[in-house]
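We recall that each integer encodes one residue's backbone shape. We quote one record:
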Amino acid sequence: MEKGIRRLLCYQLVLVLAVSVVFFAIFDSLSAFSVLCGGGIAAGNALLAARCAHRDARAPERTPQQSLAAIYICMVQRFVIIAVLFALVMGGLKLDPLAVLAGFIAGLGVMVIFGTQQLTQQK
């Protein structure tokens, strides 16, 4: 696994654990577990994005149309997988929806901030 994605996952883990501790202190252990599940969904999203980027980088002979199609396919895959995971966690396991979303937003926020920092460092 590449160094950048490892660092991103570590930052996500730290922030999601912090949010989970807050939810444990305010609510209960089920809410804390729900936050961890939401953070796990965000981490899965980051891993899928990294896999798609790695796969796209290994195929330089693609035309621009093929690259765009690959990006769209990757986005649809990520959307469907995240939707299924949310349905499984909130519907199947009956976890606290607010806590799941809080964990997902925390993990996704790290991904957005980390990605923005990576883009500014490349310039």
